[in-house]
């Protein structure tokens, strides 16, 4: 289980961006993390993946654990080695690399033979990437780039995958494909933490969900309960 305990994160030594957030993700689960812009979702994710330093944030309290042992969040590479992959907001593929070169970056620790097996596995999961393997990533559509970003993270065969707004800016049909992919990845035993503005999409596939407000996880419930909650319906699902 990947767990975050009572996390507190400060930016520039003044701004408390996360002020006591806890959550956990089991390998069998898809967990949704909802919250308005600025609630602290991305900061929490960066605190897990070791990218906080780059953004001048500092964990002042709390930590993340994996199967009960502290996760070394001081370096992004250590986090990947521990089995946690992530897809950052905005896709961020290497646009001047080919599809296959992008994937290679994600699987860089593998041997040559191991690499081919990984390519085959990812191309099986994402046929569209197989068709475009020699294209520059910059020529792919937004949805295809999102798939490439997910495929690249999956090359490291993570036990947990953290996704920051994977459906942002995509056409409805692409959103559905990304949703189906998340379900498929989870069914192979990868736990998913899904940050989404598209709460309807996230709650339609999540087992469990958290809502974050002002840096605190204020709700923690099975996704089914969140879908039925009047406040969630009003503020996140646009119903009522
Ligand atoms: P969004 O959906 O807009 O990304 P979020 O819930 O992910 O929102 P964060 O991006 O984690 O929220 O931001 C939480 C707070 O921390 C916000 O007030 C934001 O302005 C601030 N913040 C984020 N990154 C930095 C940074 N690098 N330096 C200083 N403050 C930051």
Automatic annotation (TrEMBL):
Pfam families registered for this protein in UniProt: ABC_tran
MF annotations from Gene Ontology: ATP binding
Cited SMART domains: AAA
Keywords: Amino-acid transport, ATP-binding, Nucleotide-binding, Transport
Gene3D superfamilies xref list: P-loop containing nucleotide triphosphate hydrolases
Family label: Belongs to the ABC transporter superfamily.
PANTHER family hit by this protein: HIGH-AFFINITY BRANCHED-CHAIN AMINO ACID TRANSPORT ATP-BINDING PROTEIN LIVF
Record's protein name: ABC transporter ATP-binding protein
Species lineage: Bacteria, Bacillati, Actinomycetota, Actinomycetes, Micrococcales
């Amino acid at each position: 289980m990947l767990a975050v305990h009572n996390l507190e994160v400060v930016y520039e030594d003044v701004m408390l961006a996360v002020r006591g957030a806890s959550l956990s993700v089991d390998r069998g689960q898809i967990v949704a993390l909802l919250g308005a812009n600025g609630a602290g979702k991305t900061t929490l994710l960066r605190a897990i993946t070791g990218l906080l330093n780059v953004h001048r944030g500092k964990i002042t309290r709390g930590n993340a654990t994996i199967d009960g042992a502290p996760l070394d969040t001081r370096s992004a590479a250590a986090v990947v080695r521990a089995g946690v992959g992530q897809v950052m907001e905005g896709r961020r593929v290497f646009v001047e690399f080919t599809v296959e070169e992008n994937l290679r970056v994600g699987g860089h620790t593998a041997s040559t033979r191991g690499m081919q097996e990984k390519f085959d596995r990812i191309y099986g999961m994402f046929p569209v990437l197989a068709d475009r393997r020699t294209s520059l990533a910059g020529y792919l559509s937004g949805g295809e780039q999102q798939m490439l970003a997910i495929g690249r993270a999956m090359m490291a065969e993570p036990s947990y995958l953290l996704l920051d707004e994977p459906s942002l800016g995509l056409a409805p049909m692409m959103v559905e494909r990304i949703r189906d992919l998340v379900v498929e990845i989870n069914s192979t035993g990868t736990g998913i933490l899904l940050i989404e503005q598209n709460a309807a999409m996230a709650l339609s596939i999540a087992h469990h969900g958290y809502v974050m407000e002002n840096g605190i996880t204020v709700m923690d419930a099975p996704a089914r309960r969140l879908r039925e909650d009047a406040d969630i319906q009003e503020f996140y699902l646009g119903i009522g």
